[in-house]
Design goal:
six-stranded mixed beta sheet, 17 helices, seven-stranded mixed beta sheet, alpha/beta, 22 strands
Length: 503
C-alpha cells in the first residue's frame, strides 16, 4: 500500500494562513473562542493528519448565538431592511464567493477530501448560482388577496389577504459531504426570507462554513444575522433543537438523527425541514444507450466517493443487456483515478474520516459474507488516509444489508430484472425516497415508470444533476420539505392571514 497524501506546500497563501491558527466562531459579528476554552482537531482525509483546530462550542455559546441572532432579527438594520437590501447583500455574498472561488474550492477539497476538480467544477459554482438565484426571491415574496364570503356577517365587507413573514431565528445543521453547498442551501433562502441564522457545520468539515462567515461580514450583513458555531452534534446540535429561542431547525444529515430532531423539536413546536438519507435506485432498460448510461451510473455512485445523499447505489439492469453492461461498468470503475483531493488528476478522493472508512469497509465485508459477488474493488488503497476503492457487487438481493441500508460510500449493488413492473417493485422496496434514475431511449417507457417511482427526484438518462431552480427533497423517510427552487423560500416563512372589516 502506498501513501496518497496531499502536498500542503502547494496551498494558496490565503488557505495556508487560514489553517495556520486555531479558528474562532462567529457570534454577533465578532470572532470568539468557545466559552469552555475547548478546541478540536480538523483532519486532512488524505493523510489523517491534523490540519488545524476549531472551537468546541458549549451550550452557553449556543445561548450567546441565539441572543445575537434574535437581536439582529428584531433590530432595525436587518429586521427593517427592505427586500432590495437583502437581495443586494446576497448578491454581494455571491460575488465574493465567486471572487474567491479557487481558494474556497481548495479549502473544501482539503477539508472534505473531495477532488479539487469537483470542488472547482461543481461545489463552488453551484453554490454561487444558488445564492444568486435565492437573492432574487428576496424581492419576490408576496401574499394573496381573497374575496371572502363570511356567511355570518352578510352586511360587512372585508378586505382579506395573506402576508409572508420570516419564520425567525433559524438553526441550520449540516453534514460533511458537501459542506459549502449544504451551508448555502440553508443560508440563502433563510436570508432572502428575512430570517437570521445560526449555522452549525459538521465536526469533520467546519472550514468552509467559517470562511463563509468571513465573507458574510465582508459583504456587509449586519452583525448577528449570520452566526457560525462549531462543535459536536450530540452536544450543541441537540441544544439548538431544544432551544426555545430558535424558531426553526433546517437539518441535512442522516435519517436517524433527523428522526431524533423531529421528536425533540415537537416540544417547542419548532418549524422543521429535514433533508435525510437515501438509497436511490438506478433502472437501466434494455433499450438504453449504453455509451451514455455507463458514465451516468459511474458518476451516480462514485462522485464524491459515494458520499452523496442521492447516490445511485442500487442498480437494476434488464436481463438482456446485463452481461454487456456489467463488463463495461467493471472496466469504467477500474479506470477511476483515486488519489488525494488536491491532485488535479484525482477523480475520486478518500472518505471524509476514519469512522466513515471503517463503516464502509464493514458494509463491504457484510456484502461478501451475505453472498454477493464482488466484481470490482473492496479494498483499502493507501497506508495513510481514509481511502476505499470503487466497489461493485453483482448478484445482490433485497435481503442484503448492502442493498437495504445507506452505505454513503463508493459501493454499488447490482441485480437483474425482467420487466418494468419488477423494476418498479424493486426500486420502491425501500424506506427511502430521495432520488432515482431511469436509462432508456423509449419515451413511452420513461413516462410509464416516472410516476410509478416513489422519490422526490427522477433523473432520466442522467444522475446527480442539480440546479438552483429545481426543488430537491425526499419522499418517505428521506425527509420533509423541498430545498432549492421557489419551495425553499417557503421553508423559511410563516403565512399570516389578515382580515379587515371595511366600511
Ligand atoms: P449526521 O446526521 O451524523 O450529522 C449531520 C449533522 O447533524 C452534523 O452537523 C452533526 O454534527 C449534527 N448532529 C449529530 N447528532 C445530532 C443531534 N443529536 N442533534 C442535532 N444535530 C446533530 O449525518 P452526516 O454523517 O454528517 O451526513 C451523512 C448523512 O447526511 C447521510 O445520511 C446523507 O444521506 C445525509 N445527507 C442528506 C442530504 C439531502 O439533501 N437529503 C444531503 C447530504 C447528506
Amino acid at each position: 500500500m502506498t501513501a496518497l497524501c496531499n502536498d500542503l506546500t502547494t496551498l494558496s497563501r490565503i488557505n495556508s494562513d487560514f489553517i495556520s491558527r486555531d479558528r474562532q466562531m462567529l457570534i454577533g459579528g465578532a470572532w470568539v473562542d468557545s466559552s469552555a476554552g475547548a478546541t478540536f482537531a480538523v483532519r486532512d482525509p488524505s493523510s489523517g493528519k491534523e490540519l488545524t483546530r476549531v472551537q468546541k462550542a458549549s451550550v452557553q455559546d449556543v445561548d450567546a448565538a441565539v441572543v445575537a441572532a434574535r437581536k439582529a432579527l428584531e433590530g432595525k438594520a436587518w429586521g427593517e431592511a427592505r427586500p432590495a437590501e437583502r437581495e443586494r447583500l446576497l448578491l454581494r455574498l455571491a460575488d465574493l464567493l465567486e471572487k474567491h472561488a479557487d481558494d474556497i474550492a481548495e479549502l473544501e477539497s482539503l477539508d472534505n477530501g473531495k477532488p479539487i476538480s469537483q470542488a472547482t467544477g461543481l461545489d463552488v459554482p453551484l453554490s454561487v448560482n444558488f445564492v444568486r438565484y435565492m437573492a432574487g426571491f428576496a424581492t419576490k415574496i408576496h401574499g394573496r388577496t381573497f374575496d371572502v364570503s363570511v356567511p355570518y356577517a352578510p352586511d360587512t365587507r372585508f378586505f382579506a389577504y395573506t402576508r409572508r413573514e420570516p419564520v425567525g431565528v433559524v438553526g441550520a445543521i449540516i453534514p460533511w459531504n458537501m459542506p459549502l453547498l449544504m451551508a448555502v442551501w440553508k443560508l440563502a433562502p433563510a436570508l432572502a426570507a428575512g430570517c437570521t441564522v445560526i449555522l452549525k457545520p459538521a465536526s469533520d468539515t467546519p472550514l468552509t462554513a467559517l470562511r463563509i462567515g468571513e465573507l458574510v461580514l465582508e459583504a456587509g450583513f449586519p452583525e448577528g444575522v449570520v452566526n457560525v458555531i462549531t462543535g459536536a452534534g450530540c452536544e450543541i446540535g441537540d441544544a439548538m433543537v431544544s432551544h426555545p429561542g430558535i424558531d426553526k431547525i433546517a437539518f441535512t444529515g442522516s435519517t436517524s438523527v433527523g428522526k431524533a430532531i423531529a421528536r425533540s423539536g415537537v416540544d417547542t413546536m419548532k418549524r422543521i425541514s429535514l433533508e435525510l438519507g437515501g438509497k436511490s435506485p438506478v433502472i437501466v432498460l434494455d433499450d438504453a444507450d449504453l455509451a451514455a448510461t455507463i458514465p451516468g451510473i459511474i458518476l451516480g455512485i462514485f462522485a464524491n466517493c459515494g458520499q452523496v445523499c442521492s447516490a445511485g447505489s442500487r442498480l437494476y439492469v434488464q436481463r438482456g443487456i446485463y452481461d454487456c453492461l456489467m463488463a463495461a461498468l467493471g472496466e469504467a470503475a477500474k479506470s477511476i483515478k483515486v488519489g488525494p483531493g488536491l491532485d488535479p488528476a484525482t477523480q475520486m478522493g478518500p472518505m471524509v474520516s476514519a469512522g466513515q472508512q471503517r463503516s464502509v469497509q464493514a458494509y463491504i465485508e457484510a456484502g461478501v459474507a451475505e453472498g454477493a459477488e464482488l466484481v470490482v474493488g473492496g479494498g483499502q488503497l493507501a497506508s495513510e488516509g481514509f481511502y476505499v476503492s470503487p466497489t461493485i457487487f453483482a448478484n445482490t438481493d433485497h435481503s442484503m444489508s448492502i442493498v437495504r441500508e445507506e452505505i454513503f460510500g463508493p459501493v454499488l449493488a447490482v441485480q437483474c430484472f425482467d420487466d418494468e413492473a419488477e423494476a418498479v417493485k424493486l426500486a420502491n422496496d425501500t424506506p427511502y425516497g430521495l432520488a432515482s434514475s431511469i436509462y432508456s431511449t423509449n419515451v413511452n417507457r420513461i413516462q410509464r415508470l416516472t410516476p410509478a417511482i416513489k422519490a422526490g427526484t427522477v433523473w432520466v438518462n442522467c444522475h446527480n444533476i442539480f440546479d438552483a431552480a429545481l426543488p430537491f427533497g425526499g419522499y418517505k423517510e428521506s425527509g420533509i420539505g423541498r430545498e432549492m427552487g421557489e419551495e425553499a423560500v417557503g421553508l423559511y416563512s410563516e403565512i399570516k392571514s389578515v382580515c379587515m372589516a371595511v366600511g
